[in-house]
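Troubleshooting log. The previous run stalled partway through. Resubmitting the same three chains, unchanged.
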Amino acid sequence: MIALVDCNNFYASCERVFRPNLENKPIVVLSNNDGCIIARSNEAKEIGIKMGEPAFKAKKKIEENDIRVFSSNYALYGDMSNRVMKILSSESSKIEIYSIDEAFLDFSNIASCKQKALFIREKVKKWTGIPTSVGIAKTKVLAKIANSIAKKYCKNGIFLLDGINLINRALKYFPVQDLWGIGTRLTKFLNSQGIYTAYELSKCNELWIKKNLSILGLKLVKELNGISCFPLENQISPRKNIRTSRSFSSGITKFEDLKESISCFASNCASKLRDQKSYTKKISVFIRTNPFKLNSKHYIGLKSLDLPTATNDTLEIVKYALKSLKSIYRENYIYKKGGVILHHILPDSNLQLSIFDSINREKRKSLMSVYDSINNKMGRDTVRLSVQGQNRKWRMKQEKLSPCYTTRMSEILNVKI
DNA sequence: TCTGGGGTCCTAGGACCC
DNA sequence: TCTGGGGTCCTAGGACCC
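Second attempt completed without errors. Output:
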């Protein structure tokens, strides 16, 4: 058996842990730049706030219902996630951390799955303050369904989906568009073929599924029928792409300002790359105007560079990123977003040096290791390149940011007695 | 005024090889 | 008269996920 533990309304719950007075009150969390609503408490969902809705469109509902609004605080959510995952890891020898707020746990050889799930749920709640739901079933896809049932209908927050009759009943009621792996396009297609429930999909001909929904669709159908096709991935595999991109709070026109932001993004990518002990051989940079502005000129610039030698050196990655930027920058546009992407990522065991290489890589490696250790200890960007700049005109809008209660000494919670 | 960020995997089609 | 067959590898674009 596999258990899927999923934190309820995770970002909203993280904010609420440190504001117990907001218990039972509607709250929402906004995306970067305070743009869209990306998390809602149950109360906010009941009011009809939609996932992904732009904040300015929901303004009236927010004011009328006195909904509390937070900018996203990833330092807080990341740290809370680590705490939750640490507890889950202590309860199962095999665990796959699937996202910031959910994990699959191996529940084979457990005498009572329900009891175990209840125990885990209570422990996470007591130790972190985060409420969770647990779905238990034979395959990941069924566990996802079980979890969704647990969230909606089970007071104790857990649901064991087992036995052919119970599974069939659940699949008959489960809409096909809510299945893991079925998005809007496939929903439209399946509906056009008269398929509306998970049960109807599970009864489809496998050849037909493979032809129309690809190999992933076929695996999904098998999983619905209790045949495991998505095994529990115990190890964290290194990223195959690394990206840092941001919308700018106000539009940027000057090359100098773009240069600053792209340098910061590139430097951030380089740090992430070194964190996972990899190297990159391909760097892309993009800049774009605001697609929602209908009355102004639009432009998207994208440039990829293949590097002669794989690297994870900040200086080198920034240098290539700026070279790309120069080739795509056009005057007289208002840029709203930019980013850096590293592809073609290699582990350090696969490195091949170029005979024309002019960089002393041993020396640079030492430099980067000092650079990282200072920044890890003293905070991000304590040491940085001067090209990354000071004024950061493009900085994110975060008007409703909560304190970093768990990661910054100066912002730790005060209790008055 | 105002619309996020970071991933994965699959497939078709082109380039290239013998 | 008139030009095969079978591969591999890479990439862009699409779909999906949280």
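Takeaways: Chain A has 13 helices and twelve strands. Residues 38, 98-102, 180-186, 214, 216 of chain A lie near DNA strand C (CB under 10 Å from a C1').
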